[in-house]
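Page 37, continued from 36.
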């Protein structure tokens, strides 16, 4: 399967917070953009310093060639303040508006509860229309063990530097806290080794029309 299947179509990348999508699928999104897809990066909520983190998210989206959308566009609102049905409505709104050919979201193995809540809202959106559905590697600032099985891989050898720049755009989460980002390069390297390319990102497949 080639990413060109999404050329001229919209791909929706959904993440709970700024930086989640960049960590999980930054290289994939940059490749999708290069392949001619319209890439929408939807962040559900912006915790912490809203102005700073929103600016970082905008810069990261720019680097990836994606359009940023913030679904809960208000400071101080957390995902766990919302009921499941309200989160479903937020994701539904984007799916109805964008009619994506693919949706990439958090998976079930996430250890942050609010990430799991976003995964469940994305699952529910599948009832609205057909789109290819993928979930990405659970992410973290500091590594922890997770039960994630990648079943599809995207070769990001040509976009690894773009991914790293998009991650580093979130300075308040990494450089300003003294947290190194090189582990994300290492993880892409390891995923690449599994499939015989230099760098890759792993995806789990929710549903896929061939
Ligand atoms: Zn998060």
């Amino acid at each position: 399967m080639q990413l060109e299947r999404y050329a001229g179509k919209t791909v929706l990348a959904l993440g709970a917070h700024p930086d989640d999508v960049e960590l999980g699928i930054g290289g994939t999104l940059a490749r999708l953009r290069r392949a001619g897809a319209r890439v929408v990066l939807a962040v559900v909520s912006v915790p912490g310093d809203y102005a700073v983190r929103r600016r970082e998210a905008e810069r990261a989206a720019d680097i990836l060639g994606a359009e940023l959308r913030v679904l809960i566009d208000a400071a101080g609102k957390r995902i766990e303040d919302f009921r499941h049905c309200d989160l479903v409505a937020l994701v539904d709104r984007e799916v109805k508006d964008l009619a994506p050919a693919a949706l990439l979201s958090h998976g079930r193995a996430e250890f942050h509860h609010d990430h799991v809540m976003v995964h469940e809202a994305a699952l529910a959106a599948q009832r609205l229309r057909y789109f290819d559905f993928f979930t990405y590697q659970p992410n973290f600032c500091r590594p922890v063990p997770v039960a994630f099985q990648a079943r599809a891989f995207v070769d990001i050898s040509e976009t690894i530097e773009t991914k790293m720049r998009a991650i580093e755009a979130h300075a308040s989460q990494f450089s300003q806290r003294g947290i190194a980002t090189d582990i994300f390069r290492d993880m892409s390297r390891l995923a690449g080794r599994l499939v015989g390319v230099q760098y890759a990102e792993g995806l789990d497949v929710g549903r896929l029309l061939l």
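The chain is about 40% helix and 20% strand. Flag for discussion at group meeting. The pocket of zinc ion is lined by residues 16-17, 20, 112, 115 (CB under 6 Å).
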